[in-house]
């Protein structure tokens, strides 16, 4: 008989289901077949099980000015909340739980995060809040956000709740093309904005994080209205197709160029910037096809524009793209933008200009905001500086590189 020395000690694992697991488990078990209109009642029921009441789901509107209440059975539907200056807005912008003391109760505001994209805010009232409540509510908010995003793909309820005004057909097309406005990982953060939100036509952006490479594209299709939106759709579709074939930037540009040449008249084209960032090393490559040069932001100020050899816009046919390279430092930010941000004319006829853009960035960057809040602040500040004038689309995409590794997220804590 073998000795006891060679035998492994049996590990006893507690598989009992605690209250919090049961609560989240019920929501998860029902979520996959839950019709969109029943999401709100189920969430309200789950919150009631921990003594919560007055549940509100607040979704950000398309131009990121307000948090708009989602209507639904058992939800408290109040007035829209300003993102700037409200308690709900602080939870949204700072991505933190905010607690507002009430008479004999606490109003809790939790950011709704799907992955790292910010969907909105979950608000509810409890008699009191302790650390167990906070942990459970944080996980509940994450599950609610996942449900909203999943159901969003086959219902119009959430789209309609986010709108403050009618949206053009061109804008409908552009918003349907977009990836999430925000992505956050330990190594890299991306945040984007489109203006005018309800009438954008030819501007768009796209990104994808494939292993250690962040792929980024910002485009501006010539013209206005529906024709520009169709041109942008083909450009983004061609970009994604080539990107997913794992080709380099030169081949990617050539494929996009061929797609536009084959489908449109010779005078129709797309200006674009395509970039690849190694999130492990900080090595950046980019092609500038007729766009304003990106800006490099370091230590909270613009230190240079990334001037480079210019490649002809996509659709002119046959140009050899010029690929530029740069080694980033940890904490560097890159601002990609379309010409609508700097070429808008002031009342006296003068262009807004790159220097005014740099001044706005330098002021906002010193305030210590996260990347998503910075992108939003840049866009809204520029709109105010232009006195609300927008005769062309204006798009920006902010990328922050922090380096390091994300491997620790794949290790379970013991």
TrEMBL record:
<feature type="domain" description="PPM-type phosphatase">
    <location>
        <begin position="185"/>
        <end position="401"/>
    </location>
</feature>
<dbReference type="GO" id="GO:0004722">
    <property type="term" value="F:protein serine/threonine phosphatase activity"/>
</dbReference>
<dbReference type="Pfam" id="PF07228">
    <property type="entry name" value="SpoIIE"/>
</dbReference>
<dbReference type="InterPro" id="IPR052016">
    <property type="entry name" value="Bact_Sigma-Reg"/>
</dbReference>
<protein>
    <submittedName>
        <fullName>PP2C family protein-serine/threonine phosphatase</fullName>
        <ecNumber>3.1.3.16</ecNumber>
    </submittedName>
</protein>
<keyword id="KW-0378">Hydrolase</keyword>
<dbReference type="InterPro" id="IPR036457">
    <property type="entry name" value="PPM-type-like_dom_sf"/>
</dbReference>
<dbReference type="InterPro" id="IPR001932">
    <property type="entry name" value="PPM-type_phosphatase-like_dom"/>
</dbReference>
């Amino acid at each position: 008989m073998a000795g006891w020395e060679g035998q492994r000690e049996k590990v006893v694992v507690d598989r009992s289901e605690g209250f919090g697991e049961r609560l989240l488990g019920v929501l998860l078990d029902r979520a996959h077949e839950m019709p969109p209109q029943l999401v709100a009642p189920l969430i309200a029921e789950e919150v009631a099980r921990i003594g919560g009441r007055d549940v509100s789901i607040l979704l950000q509107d398309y131009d990121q000015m307000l948090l708009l209440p989602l209507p639904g059975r058992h939800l408290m539907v109040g007035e829209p909340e300003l993102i700037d200056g409200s308690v709900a807005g602080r939870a949204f912008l700072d991505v933190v739980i905010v607690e507002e003391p009430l008479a004999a109760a606490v109003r809790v505001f939790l950011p709704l995060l799907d992955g790292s994209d910010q969907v909105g805010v979950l608000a509810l009232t409890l008699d009191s809040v302790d650390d167990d409540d906070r942990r459970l509510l944080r996980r509940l908010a994450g599950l609610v956000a996942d449900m909203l995003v999943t159901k969003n793909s086959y219902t119009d309820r959430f789209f309609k709740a986010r709108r403050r005004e009618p949206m053009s057909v061109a804008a409908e097309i552009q918003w349907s093309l977009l990836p999430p406005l925000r992505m956050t990982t330990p190594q890299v953060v991306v945040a984007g904005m489109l203006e005018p939100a309800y009438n954008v036509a030819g501007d768009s952006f796209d990104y994808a994080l494939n292993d250690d490479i962040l792929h980024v594209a910002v485009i501006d299709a010539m013209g206005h209205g529906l024709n520009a939106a169709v041109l942008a759709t083909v450009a983004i579709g061609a970009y994604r197709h080539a990107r997913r074939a794992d080709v380099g930037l030169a081949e990617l540009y050539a494929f996009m160029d061929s797609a536009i040449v084959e489908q449109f008249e010779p005078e129709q084209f797309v200006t674009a910037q395509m970039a690849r960032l190694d999130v492990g090393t900080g090595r950046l490559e980019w092609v500038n096809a007729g766009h304003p040069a990106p800006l490099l932001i370091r230590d909270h100020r613009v230190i240079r524009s990334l001037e480079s050899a210019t490649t002809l816009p996509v659709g002119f046919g046959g140009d050899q793209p010029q690929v530029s390279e740069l080694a980033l430092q940890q904490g560097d930010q890159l601002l990609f933008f379309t010409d609508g941000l700097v070429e808008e004319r002031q009342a006296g006829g003068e262009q807004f200009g790159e220097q005014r853009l740099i001044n706005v960035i330098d002021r906002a960057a010193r305030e210590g905001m996260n990347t998503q809040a910075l992108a939003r602040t840049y866009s809204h500040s520029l709109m105010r500086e232009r006195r609300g004038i927008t005769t062309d689309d204006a798009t920006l995409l902010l990328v922050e590189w922090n380096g390091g590794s994300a491997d620790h997220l794949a290790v379970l804590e013991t």
